[in-house]
Structures are given as structure tokens and as C-alpha cells.
Amino acid sequence: MKKNLLSVAVKGAVGLTAAAVMVPVMPAFAQGDATLVEELVVTGSRIKRTNFDQSAQVVSMDRADIEATGSLMISDTLRATPLNSLGSFNERSGSSAQSNATVDLRGLGSQRSLVMVNGRRLPGSPNLGAASVNLNMIPMTAVERIDILADGASAVYGSDAVAGVVNLMMRENFEGLEFTARRGERSNDDGIEESFGFISGITSDRGNVTFAAEYNRRDPIFDADRDYTAAWVRDNNGDGRIDSYLDTDGYSYYGKSIQISDPNTKYYDIQAANSCGNDSAFLETGALAFNEPEGTLCNYNYANVAANKAELNRVNTFLSANYDISESVEFFTNILFSKVDSFGRYAPPAAKWEDMPADYSDVPFDVDALLASGDITEDYEITGYYRWTNIGPRDNFVTDTQYDFTAGFRGDLPNGMSYETYAQKGRYESKENGNYYLSYPGLDYVLAEGIDPLSAEGATNMRATTSQDNFTSLSKVYGHLQFDAGDWFGAGETIVLSGAEAYQIEYANQYDAASEAGLVGGSSGNSAAGERDVAAVFAEAIIPVTDMIEMNAAVRYDDYSDFGSNVAPSLSATYNVTDTLSLRARAGKGFRAPALDELYGPSAFSAESATDPASGVSRQWDTYYSTNEDLDAETSTSLSIGGNWEFVSGWNLDVGVWNVEVEDVIVQPSTQEIFWARAGGVELDPSTGIYITGSGADTEVFSKTTNAGILDVTGVDVKLDGGFDTEFGMITVGGLVSQQLSYEKDAFYLGPVQDVSTFNLYPDMRGQFILGWSMGMHAVDLTVDYVAAHDELTEIADNGTLSKSGEDLDDWTTLNLSYRLDTESLGSIKVGARNLTNEDPVLDKDGKYAREHFNLYDNTGRMVYAEYSVAF
Q: What is the pLDDT of residues 50-95, one digit of tens each?
């Protein structure tokens, strides 16, 4: 049945194209008194029209706004928008996703924020499970405007538009040639960024070809290059004793820590290896973090080796072309091609040495004495938690390549009719190679041959190279027909659009055989693959009710081959109270299909930082992740009301109040959430795939994707824009503040629903303010970005709910300042600084730049840059 529907959708889209092209022709613009009025499409609707009564808040940034931020990449610009409420994933060293960056509208998740280019979705990154677009694959040189629809839009665009849509409108119909070159230097280390880009265009009386390309590079940031990520040791409680994790940061007990245990007598001890003090990279500490006050640990200083942000080398291109075949048939095409090479570094492989020989020189236990005393039996086990430094640091090299090709036809027909149809083919490939991992068969060989595994000879035999070969592909056909449906209420022509689309997504994540078999230390994962077919039909209508009131109705039906179907309607209205004041309201239903990696993704291992409320111990915990093929789709309801007031000529105030509720939320509980669940009395059943086993150093946490709980977020956005001329130049002012009124979610896995706004890492406000000045060939831009304070610590209370400490972390304000001298014929020179005052990121209560802070705060520091551009 699903395959039949898919076939119908494909034939329907093609049929719309054929029928539309065969209809007699009509000019693409309405003409009156020799004036051409171009019809346009705005984000949030597919209907093309000449007048706009926007029934949903769309925040737009034109090219001048984008350049004012001083950003190197489009991901930097979107990361700073206040609508990216809780921050978003960005370039991180040491994983297959190290080159990726996303946007997360309303803090509802990047997988619920649809990113499009020219109104069309792109293949998602396979390293993000095909669920989110990697913004670093999009050339900033080619972007004309960013539209952010901060409202549910599934009725128009389908799945993933639960929180809203980011639509990147690319430059087209460009004529001439423009070059831009930049170099920047960081104040906190010797890292640089550099870029070179150009855009060119040729126009004839029937069409245009625009081509843009850019290259840029950004150096990595190493943990050792920042005081707050470099390793440190301090006696926090003044007891004269140093305990790992309690009194250290940047150290891991995976150094040379050795434990002995016996399943029969329950004997357990953990101690530092005998050779711990022989190398300055290792530190012997107490083991109180493992509830072993008499134990010791041999810790490795990983922070002096590891990189925090990955190095990026990007080459991005975009081509836009159109050609008028006839008065009613225009051919158009968009081609995106991008390649990003990235480098990341982890510390040397951390891996267990199972069944460690009792007579190895590092073993600190008198095994014979323990056997004689009966403390252990012959079933004893010795396990070493080793950092295999002789192998070398784990270096990850990832190459991401993406292309997206779209070609189609569009045009205007008699009697208010128009059409558009296209075919799209896109593919995203990611190839990862990791060097200097540990081969367990190599370790077995070394031990069998009597070779010291910590020697240079041992390293030669134990080194392993890992790989991942991942891809996402998208094949799509689309068609719609727009027509005038008559004057229903005597207030103007009703415009209707109907159409269909069908697409197929394929996803694969292929690990090397050794990692998949668990034969590599410091790397793990299982290969996975999946695909889905989607067929959709949709309709939209703009209905003038009176001269002052306009309605917009939309509905979309999607059928998925792997989980079922969904209907998403929306209804909105605009009321023009006066020429300068308009009100709007919108309501809609939405959905998000399970991402392919949530259904079919690889199993994976990670050492995650968390605090066990039962013991109070904060450290890294071995965590294993798996996926679930039985997931259901999420459903959502979105509501918004607002208004726009031009209170003075050229000055606009826009206010919007919004709510988004998501049910059947797809989650993969974090290590911390699973610990909270256990402390809150939740029975963690291993059959669900979400549970905890073991104790002490043997504790293991398991997490699996599942449908559990809700998200219910409410807030208000305030936007102000204006400008005025003075004898000293033109002054422009822009500002956007997004205030969260509530953020309700399950406190933890299967926990009570709770408002966590202002809790740790849930700031309730973000703002961005842009002040510009220009006079003649001089211009200055100042951008102020603000993130509100939030509580320093979230804990679980005795009643099973989460609680705040009552102490806030700092708020965060950064300034970007630039000056431009535009000589026109000789080009323009721009000098500036991002993070002008060199603000450090907000640290956690222990003074650490914890991994959880990476999404919200940037650790680059001040970047001083110079840029030259010239146009011909």
C-alpha cells in the first residue's frame, strides 16, 4: 500500500509538471503602467504573491546583518541568534561528527529544527543520524538572506519543522565579480582563521548564472591552551589528600590503575600501578571517587594532549542558474558541492587490560598472600585500566563531502495560475580514519611472545587504525500548482496551492570490522543502515475575509514506509488594524518522524561525565548506547499570537508569544538522567535497554532510544528595528530578545514533568543587539550577544523531583566590533574583533569548562581579523 502511494505521489508530481507546461503562456510578472511587480515566496508559505500579510513571525537577516556579526561561517551566525535558545552542537575534536554544526530553535533539539536551502531540505549529516543538516557544508559567500520561522510549520514542510524552519536564501541573479579575503588571529593562542571567496554572475536577456565558491580554514583549539581546560590539581576540601575527580580535572583513572576482584569472596581492591611515579604524565591519587578510601588510582593527564575544537578546512561552492525557455516556462537549477576536511585529537587509547598477568611488574598486589589468607580464590580477576601512551595520541581525520543537485521548471499561466516542479538528488558522505588505537589481538600477541606491552616494540604490534564510512542520500520529486479560486468574501481573490512530493532517504554507518567486533581499544560501534520512502500531498490557501483580515489554511498528509502516516493542519490569521499596526495568530499540528539513526543507528560506547546522587561521586562513567526500531513518531501542537507596530516612520516593534508542546518525545536518556531516575525511585528494567549494572570502577550505564515524556515550552520574542539620519551619519538599531516563560519536560527518564527554565544550562533569556553607523565610505558595526544566568547545579531532591542550588552561574555578554572603509573602485577594507573583550566561556560550579557547556558557550576567545573585498 505504501509503495502504491509513493508511486501515485511521483506520478502526481510529474503530472502536475506536464499539465502546467502545456498550458498557454503568460508573462512572469504582472504589468501595469510600465511597472513590473515581482511575485515572491516568503518562508512559511509556498504561495507566491505580491503583497504579504505575515501570519507567523519570521526573523530575517540580510547580507548586511550577517556581515555585521563578523562571522567566518554561517554556523557561527546561527549559533549566536537568540532563537538558538539553549545553544547547539558545534565543531568538536575526536569524533566522526567533529566537523558538524547545527542550529537548535527554541531549545527543542536540532532534529526538530528544519534547515532548508532556497525552500528545499538537504540530506542530513550521516554523523548526526541524517536528522540534522551540517551548516558547515553551506558557503557563507553564497548566502543572501537567512529567514528563521520560529513557529511550527509541519503543515507546509512536513516532518522536523516542529520548532520552526531556518531557510537559507542563496544569492542569485548576481552580475559581476566580487572577491573577499580574510585573516584572523586568536588572542589566547597562536591559532588563526583564514578565508578566500568569490561570487560571479553573468546575465542575459533570458537568464542568469551565478557561481560562488569559498575556502576557509580554522585551527584547532587544544585543552592545554586554555587555563580552564588545562589539567589542574588542587586540594579542594583542605584535607591534605588529592582524590581523582574530586580534586582534579583533565585527569582520567584510565592511566595505570589496577583492580583485583573475586566473584566468590567479593574481595575488591584498586591501586595505582607500581610504575605510576616513573612518568610525569601520570599522577597517583586517592580513590575516594570510587568509594574506596584506602584505594589509589594512577591517573593520566589527557588534557595536555587532547584537542577541544577540531581543525576545519572547508571548500564550498554553489551555483544558481535560470533560463526563460518561453514566456511561461523557466528552467532553473541549484548545485551545491562542499568538502570539509577536519582533524581532531584524543589522548592515547584508554582501554581495559582484562586478565592481566599477576606476575606483571606493574601489579601492586601480593596475589600469593591474598590466596593464602583466603581473601581471594583461584577465580580472582585482575583488570588494568590503562592509557596506552606508547601507542600515541588518537588522531582522527574526517572528510565530509556533500553534493545537492536540483533542476526544474516554473512559470506563470493564464487566469492567476502558476506552477513549479523539480527533481532533486543529494548525497552526503563522511569518511573517518583514526590512527593510534589499541589492537586487542596485538596485545594478546605481545603478551604471548613475552614482549612488554608498554615498550616501543609492544606499541608497534598493538597499533590499530580505525575507519568509518558513512553516507546519507536523498532522491526527491516535487510539483505544485497555484491558482486563483475566486473572491469568496468580497475582499479579494483567494489563492490556493496544491501539490505533491515523494522522496527516499538512505542512511548507512559502516565501521571497520575490528572495531565492530570489539577488537579495538578506544573505539567501538556496530555498523547500521536504514532507508525510508515518503510520499506527501499538501494544500494551502490564502483567504481574504475582509479588507483588514486575511486567513491562511494549510494541510499536509505524509505517508512513511517505516512507521505510518500523519496529517498536519494549520490555521492562521492576520488583522491589519491600521496601516502601521497588524496582529497575527497561528495554530498548527506537527510531527517528527524518528530519525534513521534513532531507528537503525549503530551501538556506541562513550565515557560520559555525570554525578551519582547515591554516592555523590562525579566522574566519567562507561556508557553504552543502542537504538530502537519500534519507535513511534512525535506529535506536536504549536500556538502563537503577536503583532507588528511601526510606531514611528522607519521604526518597527514586533512582539510574539508562542507555545510548542511535543508528545511521545523520542529520547536517549543521558548518563546523568539515568542516575537521577534510579535515585528518584524509577525501576530500571534491563529489558528496556535503559539500566545500570556493576559498582565502583565496574559500573556501566546503558541507554536506548525510546518514546517517553513531553516537551512543553512557552516564551515571548521582542524584535526592534529602526534607523535615523543625523548630520554625523546614519544610525541603525536592531535587537531581538527571546524570553522563555517556561520549559516543561520530564525531569529525568520516566520522572515527573517539571518546569526546568533557569535550571542549570536552561537560561531563560537570550538577546542580540546590533548598532550600526555609516557616513560616506566609513561604517562601524557593533553586535552585542547576551545569554542570561542560570542555576549552577541541578540535583535530585528527596521527593523525586529536580531542585536548584539557589546559586547562579554568571550571565555571558560578548561584543563584536568592526570598522569598514569602502573606497568603491579600490575595494573595501574591514578590520574587527569577535569577542572584543576576550570573555571566557561560563564555567561550571567547579570552575570547569564542562562538556555540557560546549553547546551554549564558545571557548575561542578574542579573534582579531582583517578582511579585504573588491567588486568588478
A: 655 556 678 899 998 998 888 999 999 999 999 999 999 999 887 7
Averaged over 166-194, what is the pLDDT?
Answer: 95
> CA-to-CA distance for 425 and 436, rounded, in angstroms?
37
Backbone angles phi, psi at 760, to 5 degrees: -55, 125
Nearest to 229 by CA among 251, 196, 200, 258: 251
User: What pLDDT band is residue 21 in, cutting at 50, 70 and 90?
Assistant: very low
- Residue the block writes with cell 569548562: 849
Please name the residue that has the C-alpha cell 600515541: 392
Of 410, 411, 420, nearest to 27 by C-alpha is 411
**Is beta strand 311-324 parallel, antiparallel or unpaired with respect to 307-309?**
unpaired
Condensed to tens digits (0 to 9), the pLDDT of residues 312-336 reads 999 999 999 999 999 999 999 999 9
> pLDDT, tens digit, for every residue of 700-752?
999 999 999 899 999 999 999 999 999 999 999 999 999 999 999 999 999 99
The pairs formed by 846-855 with CB atoms below 8 angstroms and a separation of 24 or more are 846/249, 847/228, 848/228, 848/249, 849/226, 849/228, 849/229, 850/609, 851/609, 852/609, 852/761, 853/761, 854/87, 854/90, 854/92, 855/86, 855/87, 855/88, 855/89, 855/90, 855/104
Residue with C-alpha cell 584524543? 346
Q: How far apart are CA 672 and CA 680, in angstroms?
A: 12
Long-range pairs, 236-244, Cβ under 8 A, ≥24:
241/286, 241/288, 242/283, 242/285, 242/286, 243/285, 243/286, 243/287, 243/288, 243/289, 244/285, 244/286, 244/287, 244/289, 244/297, 244/299, 244/619
Rounded to whole angstroms, the Cα distance separating 632 from 562 reads 10
pLDDT score recorded for residue 615: 85
Beta carbons within 8 Å of 271's beta carbon, 6+ residues apart:
257, 258, 259, 295, 296, 364, 365
Q: How many CB atoms lie within 10 A of CB 293?
A: 10
